[in-house]
Amino acid sequence: MKLIIKYSNNSLSNQKLDAIIVFIFEDSGLTGSGLNSLPAALKKNLNTSLKLKVFTGKKDNCQQLFSGHANIPQILAVGVGKKSEMNSETLRRAAGKAGKMLTSLKAKKIGFAVTSHLQKTSETDVGQVLVEGLTLGSYKFNQYKESHDEKSKLESIKIQCCDPENITSRKALKTGKMRADGTNLARNLGNTPANDLKPKDLASAAENIAKQHKIDCTVLEEKQMKKLGMEMLLGVSRGSREPAKLILMEYFHQKAKQTVALVGKGVTFDSGGISLKPGKNMDEMKFDMCGAAAVLGAMKIIGQLNPQINVIGVIAATENLPGGDAQRPGDIVTAYNGKRVEILNTDAEGRLILGDALSYVVKEFKPNAVIDLATLTGACITALGHYASGAITNNDALMEQVRKASNLSGDRVWQLPSFPEYGESIKGKYGDLQNIGVGDSGTIIGGMFLEHFVDKTPWVHLDIAGTAWNVKHIGYQPNSGATGVGVRLLADLIQNWEPIK
Ligand code: BES
Ligand code: ZN
Ligand code: MN
Questions:
Q1: Catalytic-residue membership of 97
Q2: Closest ligand 1 atom to the C-alpha of 349?
Q3: What is the pTM of this model?
Q4: Residue 72 domain boundaries
Q5: Active site residue: 58, 109, 140, 277, which one?
């Protein structure tokens, strides 16, 4: 389904529409909802449903109503909770909830109004937030359903944003749509099964985005990686017939003062390799490329935002399979930066491929900062569940910027400590390092392994194992499948970049 977003300065009540969406607070009813100009029939209907508590205005309460009014026959009443507790994230979630219900309305033309009651509560433009939420919420992955092909051609919904008070703008709506589309791109890549999304497909996705948005794209092949000495990445790839790809996307701005690298884990399927995973839920390891998807989605948005900064998007793409030539536990490989690494568990593959990608980008591009995103450890789900990505850093100022972007986007991150003692257990017995530690705190250990590959470059590692798929109870997230985590976070980080030393 396609959403077509339209902007107008007219009031909502002058429109002929199949349905309208109204955002209503739990504690102020219709009076405080900026909907005074609605036709009387609609207001009466809304008031009755409030009185009867068919609709309450509470967060997550979303109700389809019929108005009996010819020009606007349906109302989608969306609760936003208490007025005092409202911010852009609650608004985004409410819009997301509405987005989920769009198809059940059986409406082709739907309107909503941006009125001043919504404005003060949001640090980001409300129009942007609402369109972002609506577009994210209406996302569905049904490419593999029988009925998809004919249906997708027909289904489009026009969304009319009415802005008589000049609160938002056409541009803000466009930005909201663009941010959601970037996120939905990442969701699509994540949801695509591993038989249809190989490392080479991540490379073509990158090339497509690059072509559309004036970004340079280079794909390093295994032959080149071998020359460069990337044995950690190649070691993982050996167990699969599909060749690994190291994908480099370069966005340059003439007035850029700094360069930021975004590095994503692109394991298109993680079986564990010789250290084979158990069968239960192994299908979910098609999502092990969601870090890569986040980088791709973000680069697509960055290419359109045109920020005054250079951004290098890097994706280490491979499968982790136990083929006849797969690497074995006990193997010792030499990383791109020269460190010798003993592979004690072939299922700790993310840190291996990212280690080579990180040290390469640090050496080749000398970025002022690096962010990596990876579905790195199951332990991160144990630590933080599904409502925050885990962060490990070597630089507090950069972490603070990531935190700000997290607050803006609603894409939550939570820092974990990296006290030196945690890193002791990955010191190598036979080599310099080993790819797993002993004992608990697996997420921290995984992050600290990566730290060995960034030199002194300011760096934040985001473990998105818990946030990349199957996140429930967030209005704009699908009930199952990939979330597109990281995309809007990175977009906000880059857009609001403050140079760091
Ligand atoms: N991709 C997995 C991490 C993962 C597992 C993410 C389940 C989400 C759900 C990663 O490659 C992995 O296998 N990590 C191991 C590390 C361990 C061997 C030190 C893990 O978490 O078990
Ligand atoms: Zn993995
Ligand atoms: Mn693994």
A1: no
A2: 11
A3: 0.97
A4: 2-166
A5: 277
